[in-house]
Amino acid sequence: MVKPMKLTNKLIFLAALLISSPSWAILQIEITQGSSSAQPITIVPFDDSQILGGLPVDVAKIVSDDLTRSGRFKVLPRGSLLARPSTQSQINFRNWQALGQDNLVIGKVTADASGKLNVQFQLFDVFKGEQLTGFAIPAKKADLRAVAHRISDLVYEKITGQQGAFSTRMAYVASTKRGKKTTYKMRIADADGFGARTVVSSSEPLMSPAWSADGRRLSYVSYERGRSAIYTQTLSTGSRVKLKSFKGINGAPAWSPNGKQLALTLSKDGSADIYIYNVTNRSFRRLTTSYAIDTEPNWSPNGKEILFTSDRGGKPQLYKMDVNGGVPKRVTFEGTYNARGRFSPDGKSICMVHRVNGDYRIAKLDLKTGFIHVLTTGTLDESPSFAPNSSMILYSTNDGLKSILAAVSSDGKVRQKLRLLGGDVREPAWSPFK
Amino acid sequence: MRTTKNLFVALVLSAALAACSSTNEDGSGDAGVDGANTSGVDASGVYTGRPLDNPNSPLATKVIYFEFDSSAIASQYESIIAAHGAYLAANSGVAVALEGHADERGSREYNVALSEKRAKTVQNLLSLLGAGGRQTDAIGYGEEKPAEIGHNESAWNLNRRVELVYPAH
């Protein structure tokens, strides 16, 4: 009786493994609310007829998905393509004008005798019939996804005037529960969710990923030794350093823009307070001194102010103070729960977790007008993280019993769910520009 | 100072006795009473094991539940904490880990701080009741280790807690 049970369990386990491991990497993108102001653009499939056996990835599809996700573009569906030009002379601009297209991207992938690839693309203004930009990018087959994201950046930048963030990455926490055992993983993926890999795995909680300003290192909180501690891991080598830890909380790491200081939360002196760790002389300086909870520090883009959550007024609200000390100033006044604030990289706004009628949503506070704009519609939305160009916000939300990642454009007009199958995913942290 | 402390202990312990009988009468009810339900247990035999294992003792309750965004101890748990404090005071070789938790609502690091505050509140009470500084250890796990999965009040009620974890128990 016992043996077959075991076998069955093993079989089920194996089947689960077979089903879950490939899907772990599959990411579905669905636009939950489109924007009417999106610009119409056509991305013609790139000509790869000269490549023997074809290409492992569809470059034009990656560019189309990137531009769609940004909410700024409406990409013409492939079924509506009138022609598939790959050189300027093949383009009949009038036809694309008739389809209401503003812009057109064409491209071609060729290989030299040694097998090295060359990806060339051109972006056109359909009405003027003029090329706006065009590049030839040498590539290896394994780099094609990266090349496609680079093309998305160049197109986005040319048309919107804003730096594209498609070549960036995200870190997030994933957890899977099997019986009583939970496995926690810190993962890094491209900003579109592809190419995910685990950088650390533990049977105890992992939390609070925070990128270094240069994007080469990731700090995070791990309970692997039974208590919380902050680790900083160099992503290229996997080697990591444990920050000196203290009794109580060691949490909420946040790197300063110049990379010389780390803001963090410690409770060694009683209540949770913000401290500043100086990398150069390895000293810790206490910043907040209240008896209340002070946590979730975040640096202003100029590195002069620290934004943090505090319940010193009875309920959690956002405060900010000079990084060198002084009196904290309350930042949020609307609502009874505002927490985990993040400055936008352009310094114009703050995003945060904001409670509305018992639901937890992502809201954006305009620092100039003081106006709070609720961007999401979930009930348990948390951990907002700005794209380095401030155009979008990644956050986590729940979908049934599962926790998933989602993105919303900073104007709240376009939301999309990034459905990563096979586990609960949360705490997305958008990397800085490379 | 010492007399004040003893007086406090006496008060809390008398509350403990009162609470014990009411627990036996009412096994269900408020959120979190699940862990404190001592009714329906046959206590007729002579109990010889550790008092921590005695289902008829307030020490059998090892989970304290909290209100949302609060670290205040609800009155029904004062007697239970008093019993644990008295037990620790009488057994200086015994240590207990106080593992604080929060429900999933709100932000994660704030919840770590909130759950540690809950654990420290229990710790402070235990030390007032005579537990030595080395006998208790407070840890905040935030919302990372839910006792119950679910996005609803009943799961949240069970997740806002401090677990008193005795070694090999």
Description:
The complex is a heterodimer of chains A (434) and B (169). Chain A is mostly beta strands and 434 residues long. Chain A folds into 2 domains: 34-160, Rossmann fold (3-Layer(aba) Sandwich), CATH 3.40.50.10070; 216-416, TolB, C-terminal domain (Neuraminidase, 6 Propeller). Chain A is 13% helix and 44% strand. Mean pLDDT of chain A is 91; it is low at 1-26. By secondary structure, chain B is an alpha+beta fold. Chain B has 2 domains: 1-49, no CATH class; 50-169, 60s Ribosomal Protein L30, Chain: A. Chain B is 38% helix and 11% strand. Chain B has helices at 2-25, 78-90, 108-128, 153-159, and strands at 63-65, 96-100, 136-140, 161-165. Chain B has a 4-stranded mixed β-sheet with strand order 1-4-2-3. In chain B, helix 2 packs across helix 3. Chain B is globular. Chain A binds chain B through residues 177, 182, 205, 207-208, 223, 226-228, 248-249, 251-252, 265, 267, 271-272, 293, 295-296, 309, 311, 315-316, 337, 339-340, 353, 355, 360, 379-380, 382-383, 398, 401, 426-427, and chain B through 69, 104-110, 112-114, 116-117, 138-142, 144-145, 149-151.
Summarize the structure in short.
Chain A is mainly β. Chain A contains four helices and 30 strands. The N and C termini of chain A lie far apart (58 Å).
Largest interface: A-B, 38 and 23 residues
Give the oligomer, counting copies of the same chain as homo and different chains as hetero. heterodimer
CA radius of gyration of chain A is 24 Å
State mean pLDDT of chain A (0 to 100 scale): 91
pLDDT averaged over residues of chain B: 80
CATH H-tier superfamily of the largest domain in chain A: TolB, C-terminal domain
- The total count of strands of chain A amounts to 30
Strand line-up in the sheet with most strands of chain A: 1-29-28-27-26
The CATH topology assignment of the largest domain in chain A is: Neuraminidase
Largest sheet of chain B: 4 strands, mixed
Count the E strands of chain B.
4
Shape of chain B: globular
Strand content of chain B: 5-15%
Shape of chain A: globular
Tally of alpha and pi helices of chain B: 4
The count of domains of chain B is 2
Q: What integer value in Å does the Rg of chain B equal?
A: 16 Å
Order of helices and strands of chain B: HEHEHEHE
Corresponding CATH architecture of the largest domain in chain B: 2-Layer Sandwich
For the record, the CATH architecture of the largest domain in chain A stands as: 6 Propeller
